[in-house]
Amino acid sequence: MAIIPTDLSNEMSRSYLEYAMSVIVGRALPDARDGLKPVHRRILYAMYELGLTPERPFRKCARVVGEVLGKYHPHGDTAVYDALVRMAQDFSMRNPLINGHGNFGSVDNDPPAAMRYTECRLQTLTTNSMLRDIESETVDFIDNFDGSQQEPVVLPARVPQLLLNGSSGIAVGMATNIPPHNLGELIEGAIALIHNPELTIQDLMGYIKGPDFPTGGQILGRAGIRDAYNSGRGSITMRGVAEIETIEQRGRPDREAIIITQLPYQTNKALLIERIAELVNDKKIEGIADIRDESDRDGMRIVVELKRDAYPRVVLNNLYKQTPLQSNFGANMLALVNGDPQLLSLKQFLEVFLEFRVETITRRTQYELRKAQERDHLLQGLLIALGNLDAIIHLIRAAADTATAKRQLIEEFGLSDVQADAILQMQLRRLTALEAEKIQAEHEELLARITDLQDILARRERIDAIVEEELNEIKRIHATPRRTEFVQAEGELLDTDLIANEQAVILVTEQGYMKRMPVDTFEAQSRATRGRAGAKIKEDDGVEHFLTCCDHDTLLFFSDRGVVYALSAYQIPASSRTARGMPVVQMLPIGREEKITSVIPVSEFTDDEYLVMLTQKGYIKKTQLTAFSNIRSNGLIAISLGEGDELRWVRLARAEDSAIVGSRKGMAIHFRVDHQQLRPLGRATRGVRSMKLRNKDEVIGMDILAAQVIAAVATSDEEEVEDENAIEETVTEAGEGPWILAITKGGYGKRIPITQFRLQNRAGMGLKAIKFRSKEDELIALKVVVEEDELMLITNRGIIIRQAAGAISHQSRMATGVRVQRLDADDAIAAVAIVPPSGEEEEGEGVETNEEE
């Protein structure tokens, strides 16, 4: 034995490089074509060879592991069984490739049962999309580790399996982590790329929205998805699905609880619960009274019961921040392309897959063409024999042996070896006329088939059409709805062009529920019900706020504590007429005793607009709108309140506009909101007094008059005129408005000319706006309207009435008004909202007027 001197550094470098490439290619990284690592590919192929198709009985996993170890994978049985188990777990794979029978582990990270106890077989998706056509020479085969068997280099995948189920692995010096996706979206994206190879990644994201994790959950924002799809690397923020519910407890007061129903991908449920318990014990999270795992076969349910003084939204935000209920998926889209590890974008993944599909269909077509030509060649020989039947029978009978007969057939009739053998092996029954016709018919069919196959090979568009057809077939059979939803990240700008900017109605109820309905739905339902029950809510609940906006608007929610929260209108789930809506505590981080008192829709934050705020005790202030353009998730201070005071009304205004403030006993004051009467103040300020109240009167509302209207109002400081006849004379000269609309709790209303409310200095007594018909009646709304406006009046019992402003007669300040709506004895008008005119009414439709009694 000779000793060969070798440089140590060169030997170490070469040996380590060989080892690294062996790990990269042979173990850790998936192939971009079929999305599988060697161990997964060998397991699926071994099960296919064993006949473990979906229609066959289950077989022991130990049998499969033994087959894989003995024929293809010379490694430990644990590695093979772990890979098999993962392909059967519906919480690990978006579309499992193996159908497992028995204990295959759980989301709590419970280990699977031993392989001698569990059973398995292939899923239908696997046979349809991964192993179909493998016997048609669509892929190359190589020798196994000892040369005794042949195994496929790659499986003829019909779907982009690498993106479908994702992959993770750590190699030498590199790693991969690819998230799973939705099958239907992947197929739509692939088909779109077939039709237009010039599509950009942004275009493809219109079809493939983002990862779709098997455990559902939410994806926070789209920035990480865009990074991953464009560059191959990105951090995708995942969040579990949690709702805030009220738990009814027998014999004890009801409590709020956070119910977790979905977890981020690859999150261990048991460790999550343990982590929450540790944070509670260490007092790093306050407000949690109890944690229970109520999960069962029907689904996941983790109950985090809260203490009575806890703020549910604050506790939930802490859970997101400090526990795996919110985690990041570090996408690293690394895969093998032609044996080389490459970082791929979304488009490159699909391009590699489509190129592979073209190659497999081309090879399958070539195989089918060769088989058809071989069969037709044989049939041509049989037809020659049938055409010369007597001569051939005589030749065969005269021949000394088979070899002589074969040689003579070849020489005399110009047959090939294959044709001669086929004639010599032909059964006597095939000499009948019927069999001869069958052979002729088969020959003609094969000729047509050969022509079609040759046309497929000659035209790329035919191959593309076959790829699309097969993808659509897989989608039709196996596509499922998306499980993971997208939510907006804080500060993220979403593409609102994808969301229709339709008019909507927003309702907030007294018991803290919020719902959004299209205005068109109200119109249709109002016509169908003759103005009754435009939107019904729960009997024991009343409507607190009622407004119209557009879906792209930002809604500013002001609470009685002087805090403002922000939400896009389209983020409020659309509800049907009979649905109760979404609890406000699930949408906004408000406290248990905190109430939303005003909702303002804002289409754009500009420097020349202000928010005018009015408190229950009559304090008013003006703050620039841009101060509220960037509101944190837990809200901002909008106004500083005195003891016992509450923020009740907020309106948008410009500096040249004026405000009119009404009181419950029918008084109203009209003053400018310019910088002289109402100078701009910061957010954390109290404001100044709006009007002088007497006899236990209180403020009931405020509205803004545009600058062009103020010119029509007299600015004299004369004493108030109480002569009804003198005031009445001005009503006939009021013109087309705008008007001041006054609606009482008892259902009476009127339109008053603005000219009857002269401009005064702020903090005065104001003027009388309405005379009540009964001592119990009160002023409920004071609003500015034009003739074309439509009103939506809502009662305490949740009945909505649609009414045209022009149908309400105009009267003087001292008049009592007309009946706007007949009410039951126990009902009253609760709120009034203005719907801007949306166009001409349909022919034959009109607004029913209400005559004064």
UniProtKB/TrEMBL annotation:
It comes from Lusitaniella coriacea LEGE 07157. This is DNA gyrase subunit A. The keyword Cytoplasm applies. Gene3D superfamilies: 3.30.1360.40, DNA gyrase/topoisomerase IV, subunit A, C-terminal, Topoisomerase II, domain 5, Topoisomerase, domain 3. It catalyses: ATP-dependent breakage, passage and rejoining of double-stranded DNA. Keywords: ATP-binding, Coiled coil, Cytoplasm, DNA-binding, Isomerase, Nucleotide-binding, Topoisomerase. A type II topoisomerase that negatively supercoils closed circular double-stranded (ds) DNA in an ATP-dependent manner to modulate DNA topology and maintain chromosomes in an underwound state. Negative supercoiling favors strand separation, and DNA replication, transcription, recombination and repair, all of which involve strand separation. Also able to catalyze the interconversion of other topological isomers of dsDNA rings, including catenanes and knotted rings. Type II topoisomerases break and join 2 DNA strands simultaneously in an ATP-dependent manner. The keyword Kinase does not apply. SMART domains: TOP4c. It is found in: Cytoplasm.
